[in-house]
Structures are given as C-alpha cells and as structure tokens.
Amino acid sequence: MAIERGDLEWETRVRAAHHRLARTPEFDPEQSEYYSDAWAEAHRGFHRALLEGCGNSVLLETFDRLWTASEVARRMASHHTPDRSAPDEHGDLEQAALARDPAAATDALVRQTYGDSAIAKKAATVIRCLERILDGTAPGTPSTSVEAKPPSP
User: Fold this and answer.
1) Residue 36 carries which DSSP code?
2) ∠ CA 73-2-75 to the nearest 5 degrees?
3) Which of 8, 39, 41 is closest to 22 using CA atoms?
4) 74: how many CB neighbours lie within 10 A of its CB?
5) Can you tell me the distance from the alpha carbon of 76 to that of 99, in angstroms, rounded to the nearest whole number?
6) N or C: which end of the chain has fewer CB within 10 A?
7) Cα(7)–Cα(11) distance, integer angstroms
C-alpha cells in the first residue's frame, strides 16, 4: 500500500531514513557483538518510513508494537556476518520502493530477512501468491467486483 500511495514527502522520508541507516555503524566493538543501539534505531526508522506512505494508522501502530516486541530477539539473533551487507540489502529495498516496484520490494525484504537461500525464494513466492489472491488476480480467485443484478420478482 505504501508503494502505491506514498507521495513525494514519503519518498523524501524513505530516502532520508536510508541515508541515516547507511551512515550509522552497525556494530560498536566496545558495546557488544550485536547491533549498536544507534543502528537499531536507524533500522527501525527506515522500515517505519517505508510503511508510512500507506496512510493506515492501524497498520503503523501494529508495526510499532510488533517491532518493539521483537527487538530483543532480533538483536540477539543478529551477529556480525561478513558475507552479508546490510547497507546493500537496505539499499535494494529503498530503490525498489522508490521505483514503485512491489515485486522487487518484496524480493528485497525477503532477502534481507532470510538471506539468499532456498527458504527466501520460497517465502518470496508465497508472498507474491498471497498478493495475487488479495488483489483478485490469482487463477481461480473469485472476482472482487460485484455486478448489480435486478431484484427478483
């Protein structure tokens, strides 16, 4: 929804949030082996900015609650992994969102979440199928449009 509804202000916030995220060091060796507090906040801000274009306050409040509830687990599970590049992964997501390409944004988000594994490819396929079901374009999906029928006598 955000990719479809976001305006120039949304694009500006996404670009600014990504800039902040890309320029914030992920790890502070003096703090711990996990993401730094500054990076964790920039990370949250980037993903929140991506959603803000949707204009749905319930979705945004749900995001805030779920992000807060999952932050400890996310940070504890996120060790420094030299073979992955968070700036590149988030840059791909930013570019897809600003290009208004939902399929590429889905792929980028799945890669960021699961890496470039078989499970990531399956997750992306499932998400695309769900999107097609929701928008009524999947084969065998009942049409969401309702034709007006005259009342029966």
Assistant:
1) P
2) 10
3) 39
4) 14
5) 33
6) C
7) 6
Q: How far is CA 122 from CA 11, 101, 103, 116, 118, in A?
A: 29, 19, 14, 11, 6
CA nearest neighbour of 68 among 87, 94, 48? 48
Q: What is the pLDDT along the chain (153 residues), one digit of tens a residue?
A: 899 999 999 999 999 999 999 999 988 777 777 788 899 999 999 999 999 999 999 999 999 999 998 887 777 776 656 566 777 889 999 999 999 999 899 888 888 877 766 665 666 667 667 767 767 776 665 554 334 344 455
Residues 83 and 81: their CA atoms lie apart, in Å, by: 6
Q: Which amino acid, one-letter code, is at 69?
A: A
- Chain-centroid distance of CA 67 in Å reads 12
